[in-house]
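Running this now, will post back.
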Amino acid sequence: MRIINKILMFFLSGIFLLLFFVVLAYSTDMHIRNYSARHAINRILNTTESTLKAFVFNINDTPYARNLSISKDDTERLLKGTYVANITFDNTDFEQIGAITLNDIKYTDYFETLHDKYLVVTIKLGVFFAEDETSKTLNLTSYEVNGKVYNTSLSTIAFREINYDIVDAKKESVVGIQVKVANAFGSRAISWGSGIIFKKVELSSGFSGLNKMYEYYILTNAHVVEGGNDFVIHYQNQTNTYPKYRNDKVELIGTYTINTDIAILKLTTRQSNIKALNDAQFETKIPVEIQENQVVFAIGSPVNEEGGYDFNNTKEGIILDLHTNVYIKDTNDLCVSGCEAFQTSAMQGNGSSGGGIFNAVGDLIGLHFAANLQNGTASEIPMSIILIAIDDILIKAIIEKEETGLYVPSFF
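Update: finished.
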């Protein structure tokens, strides 16, 4: 008999013994002298005790699957994107399990993960997620122990983990931004932030193509560019900066601050190999869905302890809250009535404002703009607002360019 059963039996026996003496004392006080009556009471008590003992014993000795989880398959180091299911069992041994059914697939090939206190059975699922899936439900519908089938409805939501090849690819579209104030006597830096290149436009260059120019549109925060009139873009590494060539320039296209914190910069250069995000959301205008506990990663360039920048640093985390109002400290203009945001645990620190928050398959899901340093949470602007802000800023830019007779890029 298991230790827990012995403890429960000892406890129940004590209770019934005490109850017995109470009834006996009660019967004595009431002058119950009839032996058959006392015998009947004892028999009822003994029967009840035996029934409860059997009940407790059966509960504790019935095979029971009490936990289901999914994790990355660390044994398949050469095969990326493979996962395993882990089922925790009570009251059975590994050799007694005959089959396990997950998502209507019956598995008979599995192995035991050793643990001191309980049994964990691990099943290789292989490539569990479809190419564009970030989450998937895993259901344990039944398991067979000693030839008997036990039905259950245990389930869990599994979230895809980070693929570092995707992270490296997204880093190619995230930049550092040095904001300066320039005048006739020179310029001085006033702030540092991050940004995301979301659009590339090739400009007309006549017949030769020798003077071809490109426009790169960069998402960042309004508070990053606030007060600046001279901007330097750091691309791929901190020392590779733009403007670089003659006729290169970086200009502020506009800001959008209706309960949010968004700005767009434009880099014009003859450099052709700068990469914009390959993200369909900017064309469809439909944001991808996000979920609490979903795995995410942030890319930004926070200030480090030495006063430099951890250029294109990556921080993994999860989504903590889908909807929250954020108030920015020490500002009179932004988020006065609260900015709509979602929160993650992928906080990077000062200087990462304007960086990107991505899901596990590399879709941009947010723009970082605020953080709570005390509890380590980061606040992100959702894509639904980003897409509105892009249209608003660029439409205003179209109107301004048309009024001044300046060139309007074809994608407008």
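The helical segments are 3-29, 35-61, 164-171, 222-225, 281-284, 383-404. More later if anyone needs it.
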